[in-house]
Amino acid sequence: MIPPAFDYARPASVEEAVRTLAEAGDEAKVLAGGQSLLPLLRLRLAFPELVVDVGRIPGLSGVREDGDTLVIGALTTHHDILRDPLVGRYAGLLAAATRTVADPAVRHRGTLGGSLAHADPAGDLPAVALALDAELVVVGPQGRRTIPAREFFVDYLQSALRPDELLVAVRVPKREGWGFRYEKFQRVAQAWAVVGVAALVRRENGHIAEARIGLTNMGATPLRAAASEAALAGVPAVADAVARATAAAAEGTRPSSDPSATPEYRAHLARVLTRRAVLAAAGGE
Amino acid sequence: MTRISVTVDGTTYEDEVEPRLLLVHYLRDRLGLTGTPVGCDTSNCGACTVDLDGESAKSCSVLAVQADGSEVTTVQGLARGDAWHPLQQAFRERHALQCGYCTPGMIMAARDLLRENPAPTADEVRHALEGNLCRCTGYQNIVRAVLAASGQEVAS
């Protein structure tokens, strides 16, 4: 399959990229690693007049510390996330979910920023960004602004990014001593998640002090399992207590229907996977 | 049209290409390097896997313009004269192919694994090849071939 024709720009800096996007109006698409955009182009589901390749802009890749925050460049590849010691130490949930993204060849090229900006609710990393309370740093013609993950995912494949803005970094609060688990249910290896659950748990004296749960593919956007998070606070980290508290995991969700699953089945999966993920994250297998 | 310079299997090519041209079509249709097949065309099957600047990549999911200034190795660049690459040799000896369509991608993905993990377990081989599909269901022998190419003893 051959993509539709488009013009191509390869800006050398963030400023040039933003200028190029601003001039193109709504007709441009940003190309980072291309692992979501290229399939869309080949299937002719996207028809940009201009593709703006930001893949070589220096300074947008890599992970650094900024006080109690990790700053992850938007172009950092999944492959690099998996090998980064700072991510391993302070944001293990991100590495755990990234390990389930596609396959090694795709992980070599796909980027964290690209998969968040793509805003696919079936993608693994948007729910993780929600659970981690990440912030997305974007640059536009008016300068820089920071968007909390909970405001970033607006609708199916739609983010709060304006057409002339570029996502440049993801800020993740450092967390040490939290348990985590990403549970992903898929029909075959490398397939999209039918449902995924990203769980972070802080444990105190055998109890769950705080739980943060992100849901993959349970609606048009990634969601937090707010009712279960509230019900889990203060609960002992044992199987039946966690099962009771996670029975509400699908509350407030609006899962879609597709050949993989009905909405009812997705709700069932959300409850089962949330129970498993929270229990594992709480160390109470 | 955009001007690119790409080194493929040791030879540098300068070309004018349409931005929408996929790397796999550039390799096959422009350079005549048909050893890299187009399989599913949807990023799933991995038949078109090549090495791009030292890392495996699905060449149906890369634009030729993105490879500008890069070094590409295809399955056709692995042998040294008459001496096959150890993976090629092992795939032949272990009957790791039936129709052979997935083989170039399997070999390129396995090469990527062995570079990072020179002595993988069978389980690690399976995970490393999860983005490569074989419709002849020949995975058993493919896994054995990769283990054999890594110099490990393999029960036949």
From TrEMBL, chain A:
<dbReference type="InterPro" id="IPR002346">
    <property type="entry name" value="Mopterin_DH_FAD-bd"/>
</dbReference>
<dbReference type="InterPro" id="IPR016166">
    <property type="entry name" value="FAD-bd_PCMH"/>
</dbReference>
<keyword id="KW-0274">FAD</keyword>
<protein>
    <submittedName>
        <fullName>Xanthine dehydrogenase family protein subunit M</fullName>
    </submittedName>
</protein>
<dbReference type="InterPro" id="IPR036318">
    <property type="entry name" value="FAD-bd_PCMH-like_sf"/>
</dbReference>
<feature type="domain" description="FAD-binding PCMH-type">
    <location>
        <begin position="1"/>
        <end position="177"/>
    </location>
</feature>
<dbReference type="InterPro" id="IPR036683">
    <property type="entry name" value="CO_DH_flav_C_dom_sf"/>
</dbReference>
<dbReference type="Pfam" id="PF03450">
    <property type="entry name" value="CO_deh_flav_C"/>
</dbReference>
<dbReference type="InterPro" id="IPR051312">
    <property type="entry name" value="Diverse_Substr_Oxidored"/>
</dbReference>
<keyword id="KW-0560">Oxidoreductase</keyword>
<dbReference type="Pfam" id="PF00941">
    <property type="entry name" value="FAD_binding_5"/>
</dbReference>
<dbReference type="InterPro" id="IPR005107">
    <property type="entry name" value="CO_DH_flav_C"/>
</dbReference>
<dbReference type="InterPro" id="IPR016167">
    <property type="entry name" value="FAD-bd_PCMH_sub1"/>
</dbReference>
<dbReference type="InterPro" id="IPR016169">
    <property type="entry name" value="FAD-bd_PCMH_sub2"/>
</dbReference>
<keyword id="KW-0285">Flavoprotein</keyword>
Automatic annotation (TrEMBL), chain B:
<dbReference type="InterPro" id="IPR012675">
    <property type="entry name" value="Beta-grasp_dom_sf"/>
</dbReference>
<feature type="domain" description="2Fe-2S ferredoxin-type">
    <location>
        <begin position="2"/>
        <end position="78"/>
    </location>
</feature>
<dbReference type="Pfam" id="PF01799">
    <property type="entry name" value="Fer2_2"/>
</dbReference>
<dbReference type="Pfam" id="PF00111">
    <property type="entry name" value="Fer2"/>
</dbReference>
<protein>
    <submittedName>
        <fullName>(2Fe-2S)-binding protein</fullName>
    </submittedName>
</protein>
<dbReference type="InterPro" id="IPR001041">
    <property type="entry name" value="2Fe-2S_ferredoxin-type"/>
</dbReference>
<dbReference type="InterPro" id="IPR051452">
    <property type="entry name" value="Diverse_Oxidoreductases"/>
</dbReference>
<keyword id="KW-0001">2Fe-2S</keyword>
<dbReference type="InterPro" id="IPR036010">
    <property type="entry name" value="2Fe-2S_ferredoxin-like_sf"/>
</dbReference>
<keyword id="KW-0560">Oxidoreductase</keyword>
<keyword id="KW-0408">Iron</keyword>
<keyword id="KW-0411">Iron-sulfur</keyword>
<dbReference type="InterPro" id="IPR036884">
    <property type="entry name" value="2Fe-2S-bd_dom_sf"/>
</dbReference>
<dbReference type="InterPro" id="IPR002888">
    <property type="entry name" value="2Fe-2S-bd"/>
</dbReference>
<keyword id="KW-0479">Metal-binding</keyword>
